[in-house]
Design goal:
The protein is α+β, with helices and mostly antiparallel strands. It has 11 helices and 14 strands. Helix 9 runs antiparallel to helix 10 and helix 10 packs antiparallel against helix 11.
């Protein structure tokens, strides 16, 4: 059944304050829509339950990328194209630029926003494991003020978040302390482009003398929320890069994830593929010593 447009109300406030005031007047009643790349799919199929939509696509306050000495702050309304084309993002946060390039086609990248990907709360969102690996924070705003939270705490369950009914995501903050890290990201889907992830791994590591000094691992599509593999990180930190490391990494990682069988893949497949991606990353590290 297709949607009937006469059943929906859409407003487009001219400023962020107007949008927040409307949100505060009826908390939970107005559904924000930015690029619409997810919501319009539901609308076209007649499955969009919210009947009151508030367009935030044109709000300039959400489209800035601010570069400071300690961090970069990306407005939630920035599109994937904005991310791919920004010189600081591509140089210092290449995993985010890469994930932006993997998200849909060019039309979707021109419309889809980073904040929308976060708020949609899909465990298959391409940018989400990358933000976990970068230790990002979120700034959430309402008519009564703002609060800053670690992104890793934002997703509380499948399609559930800490966002209050009267709040919007304002910006995403990423620290600029990543020199010396080797980065890796790999998306596995039904095809190379315009496909939802079956498995996604984002990884960063700092090594010295063939030993892991610090490692960050985050995965998508292997649980109800994007996950930072903290247990695997703890197990690998301080370890030499050799064959025993691969076995340890695969074992601990498999205990952390909660993949499911669904229309796109199976739990067993996801576990094996994520183990293989982690092994590929570790074997690519400088100074790694593995048996041939």
């Amino acid at each position: 059944m297709r949607a009937n447009p006469t059943e929906y109300e859409l407003v487009a406030p001219g400023t962020l304050q107007e949008a927040l005031a409307l949100h505060a007047s009826e908390p939970g009643s107005w559904l924000p829509i930015a690029g619409g790349t997810d919501l319009m799919v539901l609308y076209a199929a007649g499955r969009l339950q919210s009947r009151k939509l508030i367009s935030i696509a044109a709000l300039r306050e959400l489209r800035n990328i601010e570069v400071a000495s300690a961090e970069v702050r990306v407005g939630a309304g920035c599109t994937y194209t904005d991310l791919r084309q920004h010189p600081v993002i591509t140089k210092e946060f290449p995993l985010l630029a890469r994930a932006a390039a993997w998200t849909g086609g060019i039309a979707n990248q021109n419309r889809g926003t980073l904040g929308g990907n976060i708020a949609n709360a899909s465990p298959a969102g391409d940018s989400l494991p990358v933000l976990l690996a970068y230790d990002a924070d979120l700034i959430l705003v309402s008519a009564s003020g703002e609060r800053r939270i670690p992104y890793r705490t934002f997703h509380t369950g499948y399609k559930k978040t800490l966002l209050a009914p009267d709040e919007l995501i304002h910006s995403i903050c990423m620290p600029r302390n990543l020199s010396g890290y080797k980065c890796y990201a790999r998306k596995v889907g039904a095809r190379n482009a315009q496909a939802i992830s079956k498995v996604f791994l984002a990884a960063m590591v700092r090594i010295s003398n063939a030993t892991i000094k610090d490692i960050r691992l985050a995965a998508g599509s292997v649980g109800p929320v994007p996950i930072r593999l903290a247990g695997t990180e703890r197990a690998l930190a301080g370890q030499p890069i050799n064959d025993s490391l691969l076995e340890l990494a695969g074992k601990v990682m498999a205990e952390e994830i909660q993949p499911i069988d669904d229309i796109r893949s199976t739990a067993g497949y996801r576990t094996v593929v994520l183990r293989n991606l982690l092994g590929e990353f570790l074997q690519s590290l400088p100074g790694a010593r593995f048996a041939s």
